[in-house]
């Protein structure tokens, strides 16, 4: 119980209530002491009235009056005269004098604490103002033992009452905390455990019901988190299923393309000039398709294979990419241009760099074609300090905000309707495999520009 929230709250409540009672206890004891001394002054004044009425009181009656008043002697000052009205022998010298006429709260509290801490009986002198203006002052001497006993008795009763109040208060607060906080928190914990058992089940997502504002905000945040997690798990499951399907299709497609590759030798032997001109491109396309299928199968097992680094001419590779895209343009009014130095040699995987450029150019072409307007796509390259820099720019409509938020995430960064959003994700991963990065430089109503930076490293 002590390790629970409600148990600790109960203990803290008892402690704080007791501390509050102690803060009240000290002034209460001081007030009790003051009232006690004032009552003794009033009794002494009443006792002195008997003597003032009859000067011939017997010694026995005088002693009885002093005993009833609880004092040893009484001194009155009337008409500027100080008079010893009642007197009896003192058991000891006067230890201390207390003047209640001008005593401050701090002095009363201090004197009360000191009196409780001093167990020895003392004889003290107390000075005060007589009741009903029956003189200038009244002064008595008295024993402190009865005063201390009365203070202790009063203090014990106050402490017992404080303990009872603190326990009752703590129990009420304990029940209130359990109902208002602990029970709702346990409900949230139970829901979290239920959701953890089957996070794919959307029916187990929490529905905020708490009336406490802070707890309600926590439930709303938890609901958003669980909803996002469930969607992510579902997406990952679909991706896993899709990956299995793609792997099977790629496996069969690779076999088909391998068979088609066997016939390209005969096509290359044709005497037709047009066939001779197109045959190498067909061979390259089939080779790339077979390589893509093999890489897809490798991706299904782990991730994109490490690039096979070699030196190649980037201008020639760029020309191949643009020529393949020109065949896909058809009747669209889209122009392609390149600004790549003819002798620029890049160290990388030619197949993967081809896929990088092909994906970027294809995305740009499809974005422009979707508008039905004319446009231009340009591929430029240069060497910037220690990097090869390739930029693919277009004059298309720019990327929508949603596509920018999930730009390089598979199945989320698609721009076209029905698009998968895999193109940029593949480009980013291939660039990363070369130690480089894909960056969106700009995207607005004037067009979009992507930049691929590949580190040069050691040229060997």
Automatic annotation (TrEMBL):
Spell out the coiled coil positions from the record.
Answer: 215-242
UniProt keyword annotation of Membrane present: yes
Q: Which domain of life does the UniProt lineage start with?
A: Bacteria
Q: Which chain regions cross the lipid bilayer?
A: 6-30, 158-181
Q: Which SUPFAM superfamilies match?
A: ATPase domain of HSP90 chaperone/DNA topoisomerase II/histidine kinase (SSF55874), Homodimeric domain of signal transducing histidine kinase (SSF47384)
Which reaction(s) are listed as its catalytic activity? ATP + protein L-histidine = ADP + protein N-phospho-L-histidine
Q: What are the entry keywords?
A: ATP-binding, Coiled coil, Kinase, Membrane, Nucleotide-binding, Phosphoprotein, Transferase, Transmembrane, Transmembrane helix, Two-component regulatory system
For this protein, the record's InterPro entries field holds: HATPase_C_sf, HATPase_dom, His_kinase_dom, HisK_dim/P_dom, HisK_dim/P_sf, Sig_transdc_His_kin-like_C
Histidine kinase domain span: 248-458
Q: EC?
A: 2.7.13.3
Kinase is among the record's keywords: yes
* Record-level Gene Ontology MF annotations: ATP binding; phosphorelay sensor kinase activity
- Could you tell me which PANTHER family the record lists for this protein? PEROXIDE STRESS-ACTIVATED HISTIDINE KINASE MAK3 (PTHR43065:SF10), SENSOR HISTIDINE KINASE (PTHR43065)
Q: What is this protein called?
A: histidine kinase
User: What organism is the protein native to?
Assistant: Tropicibacter naphthalenivorans
């Amino acid at each position: 119980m002590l390790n629970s929230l409600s148990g600790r709250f109960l203990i803290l409540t008892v402690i704080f209530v007791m501390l509050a009672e102690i803060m009240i206890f000290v002034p209460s004891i001081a007030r009790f002491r003051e009232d006690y001394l004032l009552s003794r002054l009033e009794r002494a004044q009443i006792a002195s009235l008997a003597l003032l009425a009859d000067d011939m009181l017997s010694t026995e009656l005088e002693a009885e009056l002093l005993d009833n008043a609880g004092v040893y002697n009484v001194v009155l000052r009337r008409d500027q005269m100080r008079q010893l009205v009642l007197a009896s022998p003192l058991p000891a010298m006067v230890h201390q004098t207390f003047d209640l006429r001008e005593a401050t709260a701090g002095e009363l509290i201090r004197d009360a604490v000191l009196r409780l801490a001093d167990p020895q009986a003392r004889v003290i002198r107390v000075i005060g103002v007589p009741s009903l203006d029956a003189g200038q002052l009244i002064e008595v001497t008295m024993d402190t033992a009865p005063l201390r006993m009365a203070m202790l008795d009063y203090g014990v009763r106050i402490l017992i009452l404080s303990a009872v109040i603190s326990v009752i208060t703590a129990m009420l607060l304990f029940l209130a905390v359990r109902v208002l906080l602990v029970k709702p928190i346990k409900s949230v914990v139970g829901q979290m455990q239920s959701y953890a058992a089957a996070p794919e089940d959307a029916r187990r997502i929490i529905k905020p019901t708490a009336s406490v504002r802070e707890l309600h905000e926590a439930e709303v945040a938890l609901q958003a988190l669980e909803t996002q997690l469930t969607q992510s798990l579902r997406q990952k499951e679909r991706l896993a299923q899709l990956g299995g399907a793609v792997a099977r299709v790629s496996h069969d497609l690779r076999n088909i393309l391998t068979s088609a590759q066997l016939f390209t030798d005969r096509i290359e032997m044709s005497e037709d000039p047009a066939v001779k001109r197109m045959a190498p491109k067909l061979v390259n396309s089939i080779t790339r398709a077979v390589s893509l299928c093999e890489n897809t199968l490798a991706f299904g097992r782990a991730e994109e294979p490490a690039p096979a680094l070699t030196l190649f001419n980037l201008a020639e590779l760029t020309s191949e990419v643009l020529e393949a895209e020109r065949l896909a343009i058809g009747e669209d009014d889209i122009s392609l241009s390149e600004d790549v130095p003819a002798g620029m040699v890049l160290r990388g995987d030619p197949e993967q760099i081809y896929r990088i450029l092909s994906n970027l150019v294809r995305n740009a072409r499809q974005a422009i074609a979707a508008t039905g307007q004319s446009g231009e796509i340009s591929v430029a390259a240069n060497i910037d300090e220690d990097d090869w820099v390739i930029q693919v720019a277009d004059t298309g409509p720019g990327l929508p905000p949603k596509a920018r938020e999930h730009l390089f995430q598979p199945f989320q960064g698609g721009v076209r309707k029905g698009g998968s959003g895999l193109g940029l994700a593949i480009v980013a991963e291939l660039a990363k495999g070369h130690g480089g990065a894909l960056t969106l430089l700009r995207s607005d109503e004037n067009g979009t520009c992507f930049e691929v930076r590949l580190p040069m490293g050691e040229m060997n």
